Amino acid sequence: MSRGWRSRIVGTVIVVSTGLTAHIGGQTPAKTPSSPTPRTAWGDPDIQGTWTSDNMINVPFERPAQFGDRRFLTDEEFASRVRENDKWLADANAERPVMPFAKDPAANNAPRHWLERGQNPSRQTSLVIDPLDGRIPAMTPEGQQQVAARQALRRSRGPADSYEDRSNYDRCLTRGVTGSILPVIYGNGTDIRQVPGYVVIRNEMIHEARIIPLDGRPHVGADVRLYMGDSRGRFEEDTLVVETTNFTDKTAIGPNGGGAIHSEALRLVERFTRVNDHTLHYEFTVDDPVVYSKAWTVALDLATTPNYQIYEYACHEGNYGLANMLSAARAEEKAGIN
Q1: Interatomic CA distance for residues 111 and 286, integer angstroms
Q2: Can you give the pTM of this predicted structure?
Q3: E strands along the chain, which residues?
Q4: Ordered DSSP codes for 170-184
């Protein structure tokens, strides 16, 4: 399936080639600006720019057990992560890489110059920072029932009985709010622009754009449900706070819009804080009492990279992947292949 790779190759080469530089990253992410936050012409904190989560690619979503409640790597552990990252960057033109987080490694056997990796990996041991163990909280009984029902439905069907058996990502529909920013193998750009009374957040993949009003207007009516929800923003000192409601239950909280499920009751609170010219600290809190026993928070730093640009994500144009999966499944059925 075309993931817009052809239009992304040039951008990725630029990102990789702009420097195997000395590591200036890996510091404890700051939640407060290290210098006065610049202002727009109308006085709002200026968080504009093209940002990428590439530096966070090596960080697990949930914390591996060996780290316990420790949020950051030791110097020795971090040095190992840096060495692995440097090796990947130095070998950026190698063919057919195996990405460790891929459920199906064969699906990502593209030349490495199509893919991305940040120059300054993070010290974080997980993207989830609250609860303290870096793990998603226990589900409610209703949440467990929802998971069981989805699993039962999946077991009752083939992987391509219908287009609806494929993910929103496979279908080029959406990755949801969080999935559009969390780091994956490529396409991690987020462009933020501001005008008086509004903030615009545009994601590279799958070409999502949220126009977020700052004037205190109420959310739309409860009967309106959207993949990306209904967002309202405000500034709290130097931090942009975005509250989003009115979700469907058809997206999830994780890379590429997969992972942790949520219900229509989800209330998502995002915080964007400009730390310095090159770093935007990003946090989101998942508050869904229908599915989770308590709220939980994810944090990561977004970075600027010289010459990094958002490229067209041509997911539908020339995309025969979904049609091929469905037609191949029908051919297997006709041939009696299980």
Answers
A1: 35
A2: 0.85
A3: 49-52, 128-130, 189-195, 198-203, 209-213, 230-236, 239-245, 252-253, 260-261, 267-276, 279-287, 296-303
A4: TTTS--HHHHTTS--
Q: Is the pLDDT of residue 178 over 90?
A: yes
Q: Are 189 and 310 in contact (CB under 8 A)?
A: yes
Residue 126: left (phi > 0), alpha (psi -120 to 50), or beta? beta
DSSP string of 252-292? Answer: EESGGG-SEE--TT-EEEEEEEEEETTEEEEEEEEE-TTTB
Asked whether the beta carbons of 186 and 11 are under 8 A apart, the reply is: no
Residue 24 has pLDDT above 80, yes or no: no
Where residue 25 falls among pLDDT bands split at 50, 70, 90?
very low
Ranges 210-214, 309-313, 315-319: which has the least confidence: 315-319
Position 305 scores a pLDDT of 86
For residue 48, the tally of other CB atoms under 10 A from its CB is 17
Q: What are phi and psi for residue 45, nearest 5 degrees? A: -55, 135
Helix or strand holding residue 110 (H, E): none
108-112 contacts at long range (C-beta below 8 A, 24 or more positions apart): 108/185, 110/5, 112/88
Identity of the residue numbered 228: M
Main-chain dihedrals φ then ψ at residue 132, nearest 5 degrees: -65, -25
